[in-house]
Design goal:
The complex is a heterodimer of chains A (about 80) and B (about 240). With about 80 residues, chain A is α+β, with helices and mostly antiparallel strands. Helices cover about 40% and strands about 25% of the residues of chain A. Classes of the chains: A alpha+beta (about 80), B alpha+beta (about 240).
Chain lengths: ~80, ~240
Amino acid sequence: MAKQLRIQIFQDGQIQAEVLGIKGKKCTDYISLLEELLEAETVDSEYTPEYYEVEETELAEVETNSMKLNIKGDS
Amino acid sequence: MSVSLALIPVALALRAVMHKDVFDEWSKSMQVIVPTTIETEAELISTLYKSGYDAEKYGGTIKTHLNNKEQFFFWEYIDGKWHAIFAKSDSPAMLETFMCDLEEKAQRQIFTGSIHQEEERIGQDTVQTFPTNFRDGNILVRTLKEFGVNPIQGANGQITCNLQGTYLTFRQHGDAPFSIEIKNPPNLHDIFLYISDLDEEYKRCVQAIVYEKLKQRAAEKNLLIESEEIMEDNSIVITLNIQG
């Protein structure tokens, strides 16, 4: 899925923004970017199931680190 | 989707309810302003926390809840001191209890006025003060001009205009939203309808400005616009591609 920011600007000035296609905690990196792009303050946020999924690369990093720890532990 | 956000542009405050059918509610939002001895934001927040109250930063002001979060009021920084901004509709007994409780827990005098004094002053005053949702003076002036009113912007940032013989003064303290002072209104309801229209137009103006700035900033950051669409409710939806 493409990595995207979907922004809806309502007629009463309120804004709804969504970070799409980014799994895990990385999506929160885009909150400050959105605030900067929109010159706006976040008043509410909600994580969706995708947030709790882990990117394959993140998982691979965790596994590699775990293996390194095991090797150190063996020696 | 992984995170969904609700945002408010810094030019806007969601503080005053301005729909045309809520005149009664709006008229009760007339401000009762009680000054304090507190000079810094840190002192205000620390005093509130130590006394068991909250202090939530909210659109250039600080919001404190009362009565188990059922009610709230704002603090504004005016001329070097923090002021409690209550509404005329708030129960005076509840406010007096809060003020006494805060002073008792802080073990010092905090408020330099009382609810009774302020309400008496409002009763004698020919000027009535109300909250607004406007935080950006330039957008406010632009909106007033579009309404065919000739606003005069003072050096201190205050904006005055004459609407059908009634003087309106928009006054802002720091980053807080403007309050509106209405002098001798012959018909407060008519003035409310006008301000309600002004509120709607101001918000439309904010929508247009946010849209333009978003496109400009997205280009500066090399974010490509995948699509943009105007919805039935006149909201604008823009989808940006994130590189990498």
